[in-house]
Write a structure and sequence with these properties.
This protein has about 260 residues and is of the alpha/beta class. It contains 11 helices and 10 strands. The strands form 2 sheets. It has a 5-stranded mixed β-sheet with strand order 2-1-3-10-4. Strands 7-6-8-5-9 form a 5-stranded mixed β-sheet, sandwiched between helices. Strand 1, helix 2 and strand 2 form a beta-alpha-beta unit. Helix 2 runs antiparallel to helix 11. The chain is elongated.
Length: about 260
């Protein structure tokens, strides 16, 4: 009798363990990503959900701002930066599994909405001509202190000898996404923006753009890291981002191959 009771208890305990397993599964991966990735990464995450059955929560922002949030304990599993410096800070602080990998290289463009007085060209000669006229206007860039695309925009303006003339006319977005909104809406004559955002549906048809020579600014090598707290599902998404399906989507959205 006692032997049967013990067997029954063991079976019930095992059954309860099996039932509890789904509730104990990892939560959905939470991914912090640079704002330039909003269109591309959303499509990649949708493809991942379709292929693997795992939904990913995406949070977009300036790379520097997201880095500060992670250092302050924000519950992210994966961080995709627009540069290599911010992931290096997290790695040095012991918050990542390793140094991470470069997943794409970004490009910068000069964009102007239809009707703008800014003539668009890769060497910024139209911007120089506009600056020489002395009229009131604004040019949108991301904040160089927290956004790598803003830092690249500043570098381009310095390379072309326009920083001093243009700096007082800059309107700085908290992210490259906000800078794009300023430029697209006509609140600025244009902006130095991420190529990936300009290619987005509903944007590319609203103005003209020219891709800036990559030699005019430091490389926009975009690195990602897997954070220490990452769940198995997050690690799976991190690996997926390094596969050919994801890389093909990055290319389609204007990114170059990892360098």
């Amino acid at each position: 009798m006692h032997g049967r009771l013990k067997t029954t208890v063991v079976i019930v305990w095992l059954w309860m363990g099996c039932v509890a397993t789904p509730a104990a599964q990892s939560p959905r991966p939470r991914v912090a990503a640079a704002a330039n990735l909003q269109v591309a990464l959303t499509e990649i995450a949708d493809r991942f959900a379709r292929d693997r059955g795992v939904t990913v929560d995406l949070v977009f922002g300036a790379s520097g701002t997201l880095t500060r949030q992670i250092r302050d304990g924000a519950p992210f599993d994966v961080f995709l930066s627009a540069d290599e410096a911010f992931p290096a800070q997290l790695s040095a602080a012991g918050l990542t599994r390793d140094a991470g990998v470069v997943y794409a290289s970004g490009r910068l463009v000069l964009f102007a909405p239809h009707g703008s007085p800014l003539t668009v060209d890769a060497r910024l000669e139209g911007l120089a001509a506009l600056a020489a006229r002395g009229r009131a206007w604004r040019l949108a860039i991301a904040n160089p202190d927290v956004a790598p695309y803003g830092k690249a925009a500043e570098a381009v303006l310095r390379t072309r000898g326009l920083w001093e003339a243009v700096q007082p006319r800059l309107v700085r977005g908290d992210t490259i996404g906000q800078a794009a909104q300023f430029a697209i809406s006509g609140n600025a004559v244009g902006g130095l923006l991420a190529y990936s955002l300009v290619l987005a549906p509903g944007v590319v048809s609203r103005g003209t753009y020219a891709v800036i020579d990559a030699a005019d600014h430091p490389p926009l090598s975009q690195r990602m890291v897997l954070l220490k707290r990452a769940s198995p599902a997050a690690a799976q998404f991190y690996a997926y981002l390094q596969g050919e399906d994801a890389r093909a989507l990055f290319r389609r959205h204007g990114y170059g191959a990892p360098q």
